[in-house]
Amino acid sequence: MKHVLLALSAFIALPALADEMLAVSGKDSVRLTQGACPAAIQALIQPDMRSRFRGAVAMVNGVQFKPCWALLPDGRIALQYEDGDGALLPLAQFQRVPDA
What we know:
Layout: H1 2-13, E1 21-25, E2 28-32, H2 39-42, E3 54-60, E4 63-65, E5 68-71, E6 76-80, E7 86-90, E8 95-96
Antiparallel strand pairs: 1-2, 1-8, 2-3, 3-4, 3-5, 5-6, 6-7
């Protein structure tokens, strides 16, 4: 039952991710977009999971990266970087980016 509730909560959160979302921690940030995940990063992702990943822009220690992201059933955001590094961030850390 716990897994069903987690999956349901992630499904309910999906409409909120239709817009760009931003997480900021000090000078570092991650912006989730609906852009395409670059092919170089898709090659690092399991084939059955690739369609779930979208583009992102991350600023880490003053350096810009373009990872891919996906919402996991447990409510965390999985980030995959081109160098093979990855990160997990709680969805609650992200705020909707206001329309410009």
